[in-house]
Amino acid sequence: MSSSVLLESPETGIARVVLNRPERRNAQNPQMLYDLDEALAIAVRDRTVRVIILAGAGPDFSAGHDLNERDSRIPGPSVATLEGAFDADGVEGRHAFECEAYLGMCRRWRDLPKPTIAQAHGRCIAGALMLLWPMDLIVAGESATFSDPVAAFGLNGAEYFTHVWEVGARKAKEMLFTGAPVTAADAHRLGMVNHVVPDDDLADFTLDLARRIARMPEYALRLAKSSVNNSLAAQGQDVALESAFALHIAGHANNLSRHGDIIDPGGVDTIRALSRQAPERAP
Prior knowledge:
Belongs to the enoyl-CoA hydratase/isomerase family. This is Enoyl-CoA hydratase. InterPro entries: ClpP/crotonase-like_dom_sf (IPR029045), Enoyl-CoA_hydra/iso (IPR001753). This protein has helices at residues 30-45, 90-110, 129-132, 163-167, 169-178, 184-190, 202-214, 218-234, 237-259, 267-275, and strands at 5-11, 14-19, 51-56, 116-120, 123-125, 137-141, 145-147, 182-183, 195-197. By secondary structure, it is of the alpha/beta class. It has one domain: Alpha-Beta Complex (2-enoyl-CoA Hydratase, Chain A, domain 1). The N and C termini lie far apart (45 Å).
């Protein structure tokens, strides 16, 4: 595991995994994603760990995927799928890569057999949602914002498409159609976030929540988590994920045909402008 992710032990029974590319606003390259997976796997295998916290170093939780690293290579053997052909031409290699490193990883993290808490601060853009949403609980600092502006790239949304479950159908459409950020307060009102706390209290509040969860029987926590996740599956979440992911790959194919790249290059400036936009606050 490289320094792109840190694995900490703030106290007995609790592990904290920290995204550690603050100079890139924790933008995710393949190495970071595999380092994250390794850190989570270590925490899961450690029988003394009862709860896992996911946090980010620097001013933002994550700016999403690193646009400077768009190839389809992975830094080692696949861990979430049995995909191959990562170096295939056209959209084939990209499809295999995203099945593994994006959709596959997110499902793997969603189903970790221990409770997980995301600690969100600053900007959480597009791919950042794919790290937050697989976690069981989300605690947000009051200045945190959440957005998925990738329609500007000619795509339907982030690869782990649980938007409807997170914010509801109409707000999901607004998020995707406008690319505008959602405030922490609105995310809490919509049910995406469990708690909103002052930014200075975020780490302490999250640690205390983890501490309270860690007091519960370990096996009961696993059973409760599986019960909720199975309920989501019964509602059709996995089928919806597959359908949206297929449309996402179709968007990549369309961009390759039109622009010679997996994203519409005209969207870069749009997304940068949106990331600097102050979120509208609900009355």
